[in-house]
Amino acid sequence: MRIGIAGAGRIGAYHANTLTNLPGVDEVVLADAFPDVARRAAEEVGVTYSANVETMLDRIDALVITSPTTTHGDLIRAGIAAGLPTFCEKPVAASLDEAIELARLERRSEVPLQIGFQRRFDAGYRRARQAVASGRLGFIHTVRACSLDTAPPPEDYIRVSGGLFRDCNIHDFDAIRYVTGVEAKVAYAVGGNKGTSYIAEADDIDTGMGIFTMADGTLVTFSGSRENSYGHDVRMEVHGSLGDVAVGLDESLALVSAEQDVAWPTGPRVVNFMDRFLPAYQVELAAFLDVARGQTASPCTVFDGVQALRMADACDRSRREERPVRLDEIAGADLAEGGAR
Ligand SMILES: NC(=O)c1ccc[n+]([C@@H]2O[C@H](COP(=O)([O-])OP(=O)(O)OC[C@H]3O[C@@H](n4cnc5c(N)ncnc54)[C@H](O)[C@@H]3O)[C@@H](O)[C@H]2O)c1
Questions:
Q1: Is 120 in the pocket of ligand 1 (CB under 6 A)?
Q2: What is the separation of C-alpha 36 from the centre of its chain, rounded to a whole number of angstroms?
Q3: Using CA positions, which residue lies closest to atom 37 of ligand 1?
Q4: Would the pLDDT of 265 be above 90?
Q5: H or E segment to which residue 258 belongs
Q6: Taking the CB of residue 94, how many other CB atoms lie within 10 A of it?
Q7: The CATH fold of domain 120-275+301-335
Q8: Percentage of residues in the chain with pLDDT exceeding 70?
């Protein structure tokens, strides 16, 4: 199979490397808005490149979109028009309205689409989901999720990222749906700015926190920060009436105990999302190959991407208006499919 990648930046080059090592991939082609960027990245990874995305579409069997969030919508539409099974990095689009339009297109189209929420393919998040679904935790009363990055992305990235909730905590939002199997009902969120000045200047926050009340009454807290230089800390705790599970609770945990004589965790700490989620990205892209071959349905649809984006929009509105926001105030409620998956 020939896979084309649109966007040869950080995650594009990384996915190119992952794809070259997956069985069944005959060729990986990189394209970028800047041909030199594609050429350099292709040379570094050892794959081929195309002078532009349009010509690449004619010589591939499936498309992977890793360009900035603001360009996802046009490229998803191009993938569908070319009849190419398409994987697109999160978030689906920069605006919820465009994401909703793409979800409607997905329903009318025969072309399979997969959105890049790699935590669905992480062994820990999968076990947590199974633990909830099995009933062995009893009823779930509380979930705590966090995504703390070691350093902010560059200023150019921040300007088009959509903000902390849509860009970073959106991974938590999808994981909350995926693990609990329930949709969010009400959001209340706050944000702070004590760190890098270009984040505040872009009308964004470097740190955020919030609460969801889920449709079944489960209470969820989440937090996120771009300024956690001690280590990349991505976790989820699920607490039930009969038991609990924690994702990300291992020797690499970026926390220091305040208790005497407690040396745990012993490290080494994880530095960034690429180290933390390498196996998950491999399983995720292997799953996309199965989708592209027509062997399985998409494990993370545009609709899933819309639901996570609606949670992000609710948090953003809540933070700005300093009030709880019901999810049914947010556009796209009519798309609902009857429960998270
Ligand atoms: N799943 C994850 O964990 C994860 C991690 C990082 C980034 N992402 C997502 O991946 C996307 C890219 O992030 P990044 O960090 O690699 O950004 P980046 O800025 O490093 O790279 C983006 C690349 O796309 C190119 N580009 C711009 N417009 C284009 C177009 N129309 N067609 C083709 N290429 C174009 C740019 O020149 C650049 O080389 C973002 O949407 C981000 O949210 C997801």
A1: no
A2: 28
A3: 33
A4: yes
A5: none
A6: 21
A7: Dihydrodipicolinate Reductase; domain 2 (3.30.360)
A8: 99
How do residues 45-96 score in pLDDT, each as one tens digit?
Answer: 999 999 999 999 999 999 999 999 999 999 999 999 999 999 999 999 999 9
Token code pair at residue 166: 């849509």
pLDDT for res 164: 98
Going from the Cα of 63 to the center of ligand 1, the distance in angstroms, rounded, reads 14
In percent, how much of the chain has pLDDT > 90? 97
Atom of ligand 1 nearest to the CA of 32: 34
Write a three-state SS string for 28-75: EEEECCCHHHHHHHHHHHCCEECCCHHHHHCCCCEEEECCCHHHHHHH
Mean pLDDT of 270-295: 96
Q: Whose CA is nearest to atom 19 of ligand 1?
A: 9
CA of 89 to the centre of ligand 1 (A): 8
Topology of the domain comprising 2-117: Rossmann fold (3.40.50)
- How far are the Cα atoms of 61, 74, 319 from residue 102, in angstroms, in the given order? 21, 10, 27
Domain ranges in the chain with CATH number 3.30.360.10: 120-275+301-335
Cα–Cα dist 115/69, whole Å: 12
| Residues forming CATH 3.40.50.720 domain(s) in the chain | 2-117
Q: Verify whether ligand 1 is closer than 6 Å to residue 190 (CB atom).
A: no
For residue 177, give the 3-state DSSP assignment.
helix
